[in-house]
Amino acid sequence: MTPKPNALPWLWLSATVIVLDQLSKWWALSALQPAGAPHPVIPGFLNWTLAFNTGAAFSFLADGAGWQRWFFVLLAAAISIVLVGWLRRTPRRDWRTALPLALIVGGAIGNLIDRLHAAKVTDFIHVYFRQWNYPVFNIADCGITVGAVMLIAFGLFAGKPGNGVR
């Protein structure tokens, strides 16, 4: 009996997210000094602004005494392992599952690399409008967010067979 092809080849997308994330962070670290200084891209909407985050999304637990670094390292590693296992059990043609999982894995590992080598995540994309400011983020965060939204949307709105109607 021949095993069915699984979705592990989708990890090429994870690798792409990781490479783009790390290259963009390298660029941000070299081009956007000093940290905190805005570099307008689309005035009134988008700046490149170098920032660092020792916590998670929205600086959650950023004020911890340093233990949060290892907590988020272990969390990212565990989530990545679980999602790679999910990819292994997913049929290769099931792109609605494989695509978001691969994006999340790439984003998780991109930020994991930062935490391991610098104890903080490098962020630089700052979206704002008038007095409203979204927290500064990076390419890895985009992979995680887009992947999670896609996973939820595809799960909620996937056609379910019922009496032959989709």
TrEMBL record:
- Active site at 123, 141
Pfam families the UniProt entry points to:
Peptidase_A8
Gene of this entry: lspA
Q: What is its EC number?
A: 3.4.23.36
Major site of localization recorded for this protein? membrane
Record bears the keyword Transmembrane helix: yes
Q: What class of enzyme is it?
A: hydrolase
Q: Where is the signal peptide?
A: none
Query: Which GO terms of type biological process are on file?
Result: proteolysis
Q: What is this protein identified as?
A: Lipoprotein signal peptidase
Q: Please state the pathway this protein functions in, per its UniProt record.
A: Protein modification; lipoprotein biosynthesis (signal peptide cleavage)
As for subcellular location, the record says: Cell membrane
Family stated for the protein in its record: Belongs to the peptidase A8 family.
Cellular component GO terms, alphabetical: plasma membrane
Q: Which reaction does it catalyse?
A: Release of signal peptides from bacterial membrane prolipoproteins. Hydrolyzes -Xaa-Yaa-Zaa-|-(S,diacylglyceryl)Cys-, in which Xaa is hydrophobic (preferably Leu), and Yaa (Ala or Ser) and Zaa (Gly or Ala) have small, neutral side chains
One of the entry's Gene Ontology molecular-function terms is:
aspartic-type endopeptidase activity
**Which residue windows are transmembrane per the record?**
67-86, 136-158
